[in-house]
Amino acid sequence: MTVAIEMVSDLVCPWCWLGLRRIEAALARTPDIKVQLLFRPYELDPTIPAAGVDYKEYMGSRVTSPEGKERMAMMRQALVDYGNAEDIPYRFDAITHRPNSFDAHRLVRWAQGQGKGAAAKEALFRAYFNEARDIGSHDVLIDVARLIDLDPDIVADLLKSGADVEATRQEADMFRQMGISGVPTYIANRRVAVQGAESAEKLDRFIRHAASQLPQERPAG
């Protein structure tokens, strides 16, 4: 039997990059369990316009008090420290644009259909948090597609045509309606869940617990 782990995350969430690395490390610790890792869309702020907004202005409007700004600085430093420990090169100082992540989620959906979901997630996180690229831009998404060996011409046509817009939106809305308000969230077999960029050790235990809940296969004969 297979444990289906759905990672619900947003591509503009720095904790989600850390969460991707940690769930992958957890999978490496559980080679005895068959796991299917699936990536699901979530928009932290679906009100961001398609063209995106200025990053500093946007963050400034969300965190206005001195205490809030101090907490934000501490959170970023914690992320940088965690990133250094796990080879994640965050460069928050380089980011100037806060993109709308919806079309990036469409790209992940298509990549996942080709067995390249994790590669797409990693490439998009790197493009945004390390290279400060606008992952809401179709040109950038086409470049990312090329980087992970998807046909860039096909991806360009899909982006232009509006393919899977409704399916991606419905999926993102479904997880919000399920009560998910923070990401990353991991859901095992739609039965048990854990939220946050937990350690690989904790995610290992989560996977093993989910596997223990599966019906036992009957021996042949």
UniProtKB/TrEMBL annotation:
CDD domains according to UniProt: DsbA_FrnE (cd03024)
Coiled coil: none
Gene3D superfamilies listed in its UniProt record: Glutaredoxin
Matches recorded under Pfam families: DSBA
Domain DSBA-like thioredoxin: 5-207
Molecular function terms, GO-annotated: oxidoreductase activity
Name assigned to this protein: Putative frnE protein
